[in-house]
């Protein structure tokens, strides 16, 4: 018996030992209904051994077309926030809770999140980041296994252990929410990124 969720999925044989292998296996995934509406699977991007990993919600239109997470307006803000702490996108790894675009940018459904979670698990196992930033409610709830909302959880940090690997989770507002709210939300996101920088130094 193994607790690897992929071992029971039809994709277990293709899960792979490296990120490119897992990405190749994921590119043909049909484990949920989002497969029917995507242009392509948006697996993840960045350094395979990044110390810092970001987890968003799911691809939007631009991401679905380009095959890369966070390349639209929210992505531009995320890039600015990353650069604001002296890093670049090339220094980090960026992924999403669901790897295929939900139609019309609706929220991902619980069954879609559950079906897709093994791919994120494999990314976490292979990248082994020391600090994980969850962007918004969906990533925060999934990784922290909580029902608490992001506005309550941001501004602090949480211990995270998976498959013998320990990391710190720092929840922050989703860049799309920051774009919608502006002002104070932007200040909070910037403060969370300063927190991330400090955590990287200490982790
Ligand atoms: N929002 C997300 O959560 N992920 C993306 O990749 C783009 C926008």
The N- to C-terminal Cα distance equals 33 Å
For the sheet with most strands, the description reads: 6 strands, mixed
The CATH superfamily turns out to be: Uracil-DNA glycosylase-like domain
Provide the CATH top-level class: Alpha Beta
Number of strands: 6
Average pLDDT rating: 93
SSE order in H/E notation? HEEHHEHEHHEEHH
Strands of the widest sheet, in order across it, are 1-3-2-4-6-5
What small ligands are held by the chains? uracil
| Category from helices, strands and their pairing | alpha/beta
CATH topology: Uracil-DNA Glycosylase, subunit E
Total number of helices: 8
Could you give a short description of this structure?
By secondary structure, the chain is of the alpha/beta class.
Draw up the topology in text.
Blueprint: H1 19-26, E1 44-46, E2 52-56, H2 61-66, H3 73-84, E3 93-96, H4 110-127, E4 131-135, H5 137-144, H6 150-153, E5 158-162, E6 165-172, H7 175-181, H8 183-202
Helix pairs in contact: 3-7, 7-8
The structure holds uracil.
Uracil (URA) binds next to α3.
Q: How would you describe what is shown here?
A:
- By secondary structure, the protein is α/β, with parallel strands linked by helices.
- The chain has one domain (about 5-200): Uracil-DNA Glycosylase, subunit E, CATH 3.40.470.10.
- The chain has helices spanning about 20-25, 60-65, 75-85, 110-125, 135-145, 150-155, 175-180, 185-200; strands at about 45, 50-55, 95, 130-135, 160, 165-170.
- Strand 5 and strand 6 form a beta hairpin.
- Helix 3 packs across helix 7 and helix 7 packs antiparallel against helix 8 (about 185-200).
- The longest helix is centred in the last third of the chain and has 20 residues, at about 185-200.
- The site of uracil has 13 residues, from helix 3.
- Uracil (URA) binds near residues 56, 63 and 69.
């Amino acid at each position: 018996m193994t607790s690897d969720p992929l071992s029971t999925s039809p994709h277990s044989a293709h899960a792979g030992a490296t990120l490119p292998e897992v990405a190749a296996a994921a590119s043909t995934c049909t484990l949920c209904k989002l497969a029917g509406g995507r242009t392509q699977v948006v697996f993840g991007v960045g350094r395979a051994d990044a110390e810092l990993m970001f987890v968003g919600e799911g691809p939007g239109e631009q991401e679905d077309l380009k095959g890369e997470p966070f390349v639209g307006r929210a992505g531009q803000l995320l890039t600015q926030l990353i650069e604001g702490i002296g890093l670049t996108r090339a220094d980090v790894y960026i992924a999403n809770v669901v790897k295929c675009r939900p139609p019309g940018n609706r929220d991902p459904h619980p069954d879609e999140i559950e079906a897709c979670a093994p791919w994120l698990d494999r990314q976490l196992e292979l990248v082994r980041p020391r600090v994980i930033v969850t962007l918004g409610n969906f990533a925060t709830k999934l990784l922290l296994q909580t029902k608490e909302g992001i506005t309550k959880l941001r501004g602090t940090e949480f211990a995270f252990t998976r498959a013998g690997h320990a990391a710190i989770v720092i929840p922050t507002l989703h860049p799309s929410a920051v774009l919608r709210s502006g002002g104070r939300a932007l200040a909070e996101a910037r403060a969370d990124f300063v927190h991330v920088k400090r955590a990287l130094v200490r982790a």
